Each structure stands twice: as C-alpha cells, then as structure tokens.
Amino acid sequence: GDVIVGTEDGMSSIRLSNRVHQILYKNMSRSIVMKLLGRKVGYHALSNKIYSLWKPSNPITIMDLKSDCYLVKLQEEVDYVRALTEGPWIVFSHYLTVQPWSKYFSTSQLFPSSVKSIGEMIGRVIKLDDNTSSALWGRFVYLAVMVDLNKPLVYRIKVDDPPLWSYEKVVYDFVFLGEAMR
C-alpha cells in the first residue's frame, strides 16, 4: 500500500510509498524557503511586503516555519523564478534570503563545514559573519571576501550536496579600500 503504519523501536511509525513521496514533492515544486536576516517581523507585515515586492500573478501561500523561516508556495513558474533570481530582496532595510525548497531542508540544519572553502572560490575570506559561524542562519551564509577586481567576478557556484547539487547565486556588496590594501 501507499501508507504503512507500524511500530519501530517502541514508537509509532508511518512510511509512505515512493509514489506518495513523488506526489508530495510535485506539490512543493514551486516552493521557496525565505528568512529575513537580522530582524523579526510579524507574519502579516512580511506577507504584505512580499506581495508588494514580488507582485505574484496569482495568490501565494506563506507558512510560518520555526527559526524565523517561512515557506512560500507560488502557483506560477514565472513568479517562482522571479522570486529566486531578481533579488537581492530588501525588507525593512534587511536582506531577505530565498532558496528553493528541498526535501532535505531543515530549519535546524547547521551550515556546511566547507563554507570557508566555498568562499575562497570567490577570493580571500576575511570574515565569516558571527551569525553564520554560530549557525543561526541555517543554510544561509554571509562572508566578507577580498575580491581581485582585475579578474571576472564569480556569479554562481555549484555546491555538491549529495545526493543533490545546486547552483547558488553569489551576491556582492562592494567596499573599496583603495591604496591602503596594496
């Protein structure tokens, strides 16, 4: 059957068939996980701001997850792509991070130990943000990286996250230090 109910290690358990999992994943195909960095905002205020920024062509569903994360389900592919690619999004003077939903997403997941190595693909890592190093952002990372402007900027990085891989968009915020760094 599609649903198998039982007991494992003294606890009730439920197992769903691959077919049911595929239906669930398809239902989540245009879902985004978002988090407003550095500020807590009420659900309704954030929802109103998302509607005004993204201007979706059809209604969206926003669900409050734990750890100040939200799940956003969009109906149209064009709205989904716009939300993921047209940022960075600023809400009440704070960055709103967005990423595609993944069946492996967890609001309590620690950031990968290889964050510094990923940053070094861009340039010399000067600083990991304190919130990043204490894993308060989950999968979102903020780095200070020294970039050689005589070389092309890295705009995407392929991140291997077995058994899946993804391209992560790199966003730059420039501070020019001038002659002092030569």
UniProtKB/TrEMBL annotation:
Signal sequence extent: none
Top-level taxon in the UniProt lineage: Eukaryota
DUF4283 domain sequence ranges: 27-108
Taxonomic placement: Eukaryota, Viridiplantae, Streptophyta, Embryophyta, Tracheophyta
InterPro entries membership: At4g02000-like (IPR040256), DUF4283 (IPR025558)
Species whose genome carries this gene: Gossypium raimondii (Peruvian cotton)
Name of the molecule in the record: DUF4283 domain-containing protein
